């Protein structure tokens, strides 16, 4: 496996890891059973699996949005007890914008919550919007935008704090395929420009192969890791990658692993 | 980055000229038609009274009512002012009380559970039945004010409470992720999310405050020292001055319509850029 070029080439320690993380919901459902997962600096890691495999739960625990029932979240490079919330950007499946605020004010939110006044935040807001191609829509309201554009605003909002770790929970699942392909290309470009680490939850084999440097395949009931696929392809990719035999081969492997992960549920 | 055609939204598509003309004609008709029907109804009333020689102490004609409105304007305008003052102060108190209590409810489910029964009891008990009691304990003017407050309070409280609770869950997660304090969450997320609900409650509460003031004044009857519009109606009834009774009624209706229009306009101005209820549909 060729390691992906990273912002921290000398650092071999993971950026963050889940150690034996389990999560049982109050209704008794075991969402995760002893999950071990390392997120390495600079990688784009896909969590691929069927619904109910706990991939979103794992992402939320990484973000600190949900408490693990057992196990721990480790940030090896950080001081004990440090607050990591400032270093994380999160993109939900829905754009999750505030409808009463303009695009610029929506992107301002993470900085505003840190106490940055609007005027001081403006250059960073404009930069984030320019990165997602929405520089001229700063004064628009979310309802005036298409689904893909709303998702771009959501991504700009997550990037405006320049997070070390970007967590994305099936962000493009509700979009049409053409929009989705465009956003996939944009995500690859943004990640390479910014050099951040991305954990990307998806149930699409093709999306995970196209985007990732590494794919972790998960299975449901209980949620666990069943396979890991290294995508040994340079991180700068474009649509031509989709036409290569290597891409087809990786998709086939990922599909097989996913199929294997779902086998016990064949009766469903 | 380039925008694909499928993504480009088209918020300001210019309508074709023929469509503009048709829309204008439709709008004009939408104003003219109700006005014409209303005027026709007034004319029919006038004709009914004149053709059948109905005496004004049974049913005054619209022209007689208009006459009374002009002749008694001194007395009536004073009463209108009293009623409006009570309505507006009651509504202000209801807004402050309702929003404050809704914010308190939003802080903890236990507070909400403990206090909500009181709010419901006050809401379901008819104000006409409470008014005589309040008149025993309070001065008539204060009692009328409290009655108007009580009816306007509940819709504002319950709507605002619903609005505060309806902020998007993932947005709340996002605020948690960025470590937002409760105060910031309230200011930047929950209050804006509650605004459309609050404005809906305000429109209902505004009308109800007027009704509450009128009902309480009627209950106070001649014992009241107030001289609001309801008092004028009761008084004119005793004196068989039916045209003035109708004139006072007209003023109450006009006041109610004005309150409704003001809040509808306010709602439109505050929500038109972002809320589905106020924004124009594009199709």
UniProtKB/TrEMBL annotation, chain A:
The keyword Kinase does not apply. Residues 16-247 form the ABC transporter domain. One of its GO terms (molecular function) is ATP binding. PROSITE patterns: ABC_TRANSPORTER_1, ABC_TRANSPORTER_2. Keywords: ATP-binding, Nucleotide-binding, Transport. This is ABC transporter ATP-binding protein. Belongs to the ABC transporter superfamily. It holds the Pfam family ABC_tran. InterPro entries: AAA+_ATPase, ABC_transporter-like_ATP-bd, ABC_transporter-like_CS, ABC_transporter_ATP-bind, P-loop_NTPase. The lineage of its organism: Bacteria, Pseudomonadati, Pseudomonadota, Alphaproteobacteria, Hyphomicrobiales. It comes from the Bacteria.
């Amino acid at each position: 496996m060729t390691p992906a070029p990273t912002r921290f080439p000398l650092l071999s320690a993971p950026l963050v890891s889940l150690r034996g993380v389990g999560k049982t919901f109050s209704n008794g459902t075991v969402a995760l059973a002893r999950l071990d997962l390392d997120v390495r600096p600079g990688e784009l890691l896909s969590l691929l699996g069927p619904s109910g495999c706990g991939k979103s739960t794992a992402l939320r625990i990484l973000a600190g949005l949900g408490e693990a029932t057992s196990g721990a979240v480790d940030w090896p490079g950080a001081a004990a007890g440090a607050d990591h919330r400032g270093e994380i950007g999160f993109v939900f499946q829905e754009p999750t914008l505030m409808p009463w605020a303009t695009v610029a004010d929506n992107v301002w939110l993470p900085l505003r919550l840190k106490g940055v006044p609007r005027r001081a935040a403006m250059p960073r807001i404009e930069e984030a919007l320019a990165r997602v191609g929405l520089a001229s829509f700063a004064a628009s309201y979310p309802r005036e935008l298409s689904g893909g554009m709303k998702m771009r605003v959501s991504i700009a909002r997550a990037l405006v704090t320049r997070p070390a770790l970007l967590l994305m929970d099936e962000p493009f699942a509700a979009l049409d395929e053409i929009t989705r392909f465009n956003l996939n290309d944009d995500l690859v470009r943004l990640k390479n420009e910014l050099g951040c680490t991305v954990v990307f939850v998806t149930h699409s084999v093709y999306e995970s192969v196209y985007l990732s440097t590494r794919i972790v395949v998960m299975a449901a009931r209980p949620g666990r890791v069943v396979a890991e696929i290294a995508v040994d392809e340079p991180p700068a990719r474009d649509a031509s990658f989709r036409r290569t035999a290597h891409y087809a081969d990786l998709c086939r492997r990922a599909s097989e692993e996913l199929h294997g992960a779902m086998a016990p549920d064949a009766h469903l | 980055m380039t925008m694909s055609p499928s993504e480009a939204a088209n918020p300001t598509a210019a309508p074709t000229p023929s469509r503009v003309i048709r829309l204008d004609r439709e709008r004009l008709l939408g104003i003219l038609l109700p006005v014409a029907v209303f005027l026709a109804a007034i004319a029919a009333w006038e004709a009914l009274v004149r053709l059948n020689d109905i005496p004004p102490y049974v049913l005054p004609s619209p022209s007689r009512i208009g006459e009374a409105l002009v002749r008694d304007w001194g007395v009536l305008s004073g009463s209108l002012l009293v009623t409006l003052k009570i309505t507006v102060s009651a509504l202000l108190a209801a807004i402050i009380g309702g929003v404050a209590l809704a914010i308190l409810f939003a802080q903890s489910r236990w507070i909400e559970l403990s206090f909500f029964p009181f709010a419901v009891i006050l809401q379901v008990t008819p104000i006409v039945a409470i008014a005589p009691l309040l008149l025993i304990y309070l001065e008539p003017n204060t009692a009328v004010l409290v009655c108007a407050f009580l009816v306007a309070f509940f819709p504002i409280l319950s709507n605002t409470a619903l609005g505060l609770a309806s902020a998007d869950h993932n947005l709340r997660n996002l605020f948690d992720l960025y470590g937002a304090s409760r105060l910031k969450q309230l200011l930047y997320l929950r209050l804006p999310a509650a605004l459309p609900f609050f404005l809906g409650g305000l429109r209902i509460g505004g009308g109800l405050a007027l009704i509450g003031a009128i009902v309480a004044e009627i209950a106070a009857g001649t014992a009241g020292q107030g001289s609001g519009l309801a008092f004028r109606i009761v008084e004119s009834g005793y004196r068989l001055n039916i045209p003035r009774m109708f004139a006072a009624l007209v003023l109450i209706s006009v006041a109610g319509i004005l309150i409704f229009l003001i809040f509808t306009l306010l709602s439109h101005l505050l929500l038109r850029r972002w809320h589905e209820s106020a924004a124009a549909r594009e199709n």
